[in-house]
């Protein structure tokens, strides 16, 4: 519209100028004279006619070239208009697809998203949402196809597609595939919090505690988990690694695993016990006896005491005497008295063993103490007393079983 106004304004100005020229020439009674020659051709006319013809010719040529320009641009304009229409439809399809996916209409969402992805300004979003919809309806082949198309729309350094792919693998219980993808993303951005968290989840589900132990420093450094969560995870990870090493029943492997445990985890109650129990089971209890005594001095633990008493030593009498020293600190500890009774029985100090076991039973009756007392009495030929002790142990054991069943059943 603006161009038309400019055109008409210019035409009126030209007509006014031609009229003014004609009036000026008429006042002088001289129409003017114009001669144009070209080869054997010549054109003679008055100045007024030439001026009017020039104006008409100029505006005629101008209109022609403007029309020609419009015709030349018309295919491009039509193409752009079509693209705009397709783009608007793709945007509407994206919104509709997102709503369908939110409503659980997976198949319809997938269909509409993929159909308009090529014409969208955000094809990546179309394919990623379609991949989620495909997985939700169990079409894993289609999911992988859409993820590949999404990857083709993304740059090598963009980890959006990889994050979605890993997330879908995790939700589909495909932990090995998830770790493969997450490993690539980790090499691109080692400090990405979401990548680290998903790697932690995948390692934990797979039971890959060695891989998780290597990931722990990054989880702590980048504050992916709270400090308390990291400590719990460290405790679980290294306890699992110790148990795996214990299954091999090789003292060197157990010791090597223990050396990888951070010092602040070694002090956690129960972790050291796993290590000590594994070393004792592997036949290397004598090598950790001094460490067990130090640990017991720092933190009294009945379980650790029982483990210490189970060590096979070259001098069992000395072993008994070293543990008897704890009586001065814990004279009424039933477990300590029971352990001393067991060790005294082992070195054939029957009277001492019986005294310790009777004291233990007076403080806290236990099945193990009754059994040991029966063995002491039986070895001394006191068969009736031994039978009575065994009987009391069995009754106590049955009472404990019944009590546990009642607690479970409510």
From TrEMBL:
Q: Where located?
A: Cell inner membrane
Q: Which Pfam families match?
A: HemY_N
Give the matching InterPro entries. Heme_biosyn_assoc_TPR_pro, HemY_N, TPR-like_helical_dom_sf, TPR_rpt
Q: Does the keyword Transmembrane apply?
A: yes
**Which SUPFAM superfamilies does the entry link to?**
TPR-like
* Main localization (coarse): membrane
Q: What keyword terms does UniProt attach to this protein?
A: Cell inner membrane, Cell membrane, Membrane, Porphyrin biosynthesis, Transmembrane, Transmembrane helix
Q: In which pathway does it act?
A: Porphyrin-containing compound metabolism; protoheme biosynthesis
GO BP term, pick one = porphyrin-containing compound biosynthetic process
**Membrane topology label:** Multi-pass membrane protein
Listed GO CC annotations: plasma membrane
The job of this chain, per UniProt, is described as: Involved in a late step of protoheme IX synthesis.
**What is this protein identified as?**
Heme biosynthesis protein HemY
Upper lineage ranks? Bacteria, Pseudomonadati, Pseudomonadota, Gammaproteobacteria, Methylococcales
